[in-house]
Amino acid sequence: MRLRAIEAAVRVAEDFGLRLHEPVLLRSTNNIVAWLRPAPIVAKVRPESHAGFRRELWVASELSARGGPVVPPAYEVPAIVHSHDGFEITFWRYCPQPSDSDIPGARIAAAMQRLHAAYAAISSELRADLPSYMTELEFVSNVLCDAERLSELRDVDRHLLRDTFDRLRIRLQTLSPDETHMVIHGSPHPYNVLTVDGEPRFIDFETTCIGPWEWDLAHTAPDTEPHYAGVANAQLLRLCRDMVSVKTAAWCWADVNRGDLRYHAEVHLARVKEIFAEYR
Q1: Which of 22, 101, 225, 266 is most buried by its number of CB atoms within 10 A?
Q2: Which residues neighbour 163 within 8 Å (Cβ) at sequence distance 6 or greater?
Q3: What percent of the chain has pLDDT over 70?
Q4: What DSSP designation does 190 have?
């Protein structure tokens, strides 16, 4: 399917006058992402219709227009969701990455503040159509109840993940009421941050949602928080970091044989075991 998906993206790009050769697969997760070499364009492809694709294009365009630190859609192709051969395709600016892409926490914090400020500028147009960050956690809950989907995870570990998840969710709902939430990225982990001209830029806005800004901060390294200008609720941030480990463990074990996900699955499972002992 990956080859068909990339071929569909190439055909659409060629319809707009681009001449391409040897596209390069960059990522194959829920979406297939490929650099359409030599054009400075990345194609993002999925095999079925998804409302998040359309919202992502609008969000990224609006954030970019307001100076947000984002990777924008490619200007060479219309910024719409294209369809070809059963696939939906969007096109984005290609940003080659340095071999050492470790970004200091202070720069991540500054970029995240700018991102949140840009989100605030468009929040009135977005809020009615956005899910809560808890919506993703409902999907995580379903995964943790599905022994077949987590077939390579021991039942005892799946139950531990589930128990920890339930405890954390109750505490999050108590400590972070909906009326305090804002528009956030939803999943700004390191794979969703690129370096452009030495500065961080965010990608993948399908996860844009309503939630506490501590949820975004919880996806970053601990050295980011001291540099973020807002005063974090330390207890809430801790809960969010713990829940990020639970959800990451769940998603990685559900697809454990792809790429380096087994490593991440094991790392986060070990962290959740520590968390479970602390919350008992």
Answers
A1: 225
A2: 276
A3: 99
A4: G
Amino acid 129: pLDDT? 83
pLDDT confidence tier of residue 278, bands split at 50, 70 and 90: confident
Query: How many CB atoms are closer than 10 A to CB 251?
Result: 20
| CA-to-CA separations, 261 to 165, 216, 248, 258, 269, in angstroms, rounded | 20, 21, 10, 6, 12
**For residues 107-134, average pLDDT:** 91
pLDDT at 128 over 90: no
For residues 74 and 12, the answer to whether their CB atoms sit within 8 Å is no
User: How far apart, in whole angstroms, are the C-alpha atoms of residue 23 and residue 100?
Assistant: 23
Ranking 8-17, 233-242, 255-264 by mean pLDDT, the lowest is 255-264
Give whole-number Cα distances, 132 to 27, 107, 146, 182, 256, in Å.
26, 27, 23, 10, 27
Q: Which residues contact 141 (CB under 8 A, 6 or more apart)?
A: 162, 165, 169
Residue type, 68: G
The identity of residue 124, as a single letter, is S
Three-state secondary structure call for residue 220: coil
All structural domains of the chain, each given as residue ranges with its CATH number in brackets, are: 2-93 (3.30.200.20), 105-279 (3.90.1200.10)
- HEC secondary structure over 78-142: CCCCEEECCEEEEEEECCCCCCCCCCCHHHHHHHHHHHHHHHHHHHHHHHHHCCEHHHHHHHHHH
Q: By the 8 A CB rule, do 104 and 43 touch?
A: no
- Condensed to tens digits (0 to 9), the pLDDT of residues 149-195 reads 999 999 999 999 999 999 999 999 999 887 789 999 999 999 999 99
